[in-house]
Amino acid sequence: MLPIQTTSSDVACNGTFNCSSGHLDEKAVKNDPRVKWILSRETYFTIEKYIKVSTLILSVIALILNSLNISVFVSQDRNSTKYYLMAISIVDIIYAAVECFESIYIMVMANESLFSYGFRLYTSLYLKPVLLRSINCLIVLVSIERLLVVVYPLKAKDFIFMRRPKSIMVMVILAVLLFHIFSPLRFTITSTTDPTQNLTSLTVGYSQLFRQNPALMRGMSTASKVIFVYTLLIGGLILNLLVVCVLKRHSKKRQEMKTTTDADKAARRERQTTITIVTSSSVYLFLSLPLATTSILNNMIPDVFGRNKPAYYVYLLMEKLGSALMDLSMSTDFVSYLFLSTSFRTSLFSILHIKRRNVQANRRAS
């Protein structure tokens, strides 16, 4: 029978297999007395219960905060930066909504119906990886856009990243969608009927397509991780580092130059926007690293973290914690915008009808 829920190293697995390694799910692992577990099975499942609850809470928070992000961006002047940030928040909302629905459905409906199997299979194998990897792509795009603005402040608007942000985002997300079509095709749901007991059980196994082309399917899986996870995470961090270095150098040059008040205000506003975006994207990328690192460890040393190995439940716990950090990262954008961006705070307070106290009123009160 299919266990309730499992997540793989990149949130791309189903309930029976760890799709990154082909290992069976933790609930299918026999508690072999010969194996000296570093972390016991009972301890793992006790901790997992709390992680599931925290995942639901973090997903609800992400829904609320990203909705506020979009409300603020819609109320402000539109530019390429706003389009990229709005797209990231929209994808965050979709991912958080899927997480909420999945968590609530599993808690409320503990049955093993065909819908339950199909939803968890195709959500875990296709929808979640596509959403997370689309976010990675969008963060890299906004990092490139910020780098161009800082390096070429006068020519930035001529680049296609500024002129056609919607077209670029559509093409990138479409590429992610099409590239990952192979993922759910690797597995299939089959039903088996026991005539003696009149019971039908559903199981998830490798599809005929996978059995005919195992090397191709595994190669596609590895390529998807390399291209859309590891390369984008490392590339995004490098881009942000370059933006910080260039921004620091340009700030020194601007201090030596005599500029008008308007030009100085525009430069400070652009600098604040860049710092805010670099901070928010860097936090997201750092919080995404544990999950990617877990996947790398699983691929490099499967004999250590494999099924019925001493560190197996340690690996699963690292995986769950990495997923929780990923859910947390969905809310960090709002915090960065709120503390670092004056224009974001002003727009947010206006939307929420929060009036900022007047300085003179405070002085009179004192």
Any overview of this molecule?
- With 366 residues, the protein is mainly alpha-helical.
- The protein has one domain: Rhodopsin 7-helix transmembrane proteins (Rhopdopsin 7-helix transmembrane proteins).
- 72% of the residues lie in helices and 5% in strands.
- Helix 2 runs antiparallel to helix 3 and helix 11 crosses helix 12.
Describe the structure using short key phrases.
disordered N terminus, 366 residues, disordered C terminus, Rhopdopsin 7-helix transmembrane proteins, 72% helix, 13 helices, mainly alpha
Strand residue content: 5-15%
Q: Strands of the biggest beta sheet: in what spatial order?
A: 1-2
Number of domains: 1
| Oligomer classification | single chain
Main β-sheet description:
2 strands, antiparallel
Q: Based on the structure given, which CATH architecture is correct?
A: Up-down Bundle
What is the CATH homologous superfamily assignment? Answer: Rhodopsin 7-helix transmembrane proteins
Determine the mean pLDDT.
80
**Would you tell me the structural class of the helices and strands?**
mainly alpha
Number of helical elements: 13
Number of strands: 4
Rg, please?
24 Å
Order of helices and strands: EEHHHHHHEEHHHHHHH
What distance separates the N and C termini? 69 Å
CATH topology: Rhopdopsin 7-helix transmembrane proteins
CATH class category name: Mainly Alpha
Any idea what the shape is? elongated
**Which regions contain 5 or more consecutive residues with pLDDT less than 50?**
1-28, 358-366
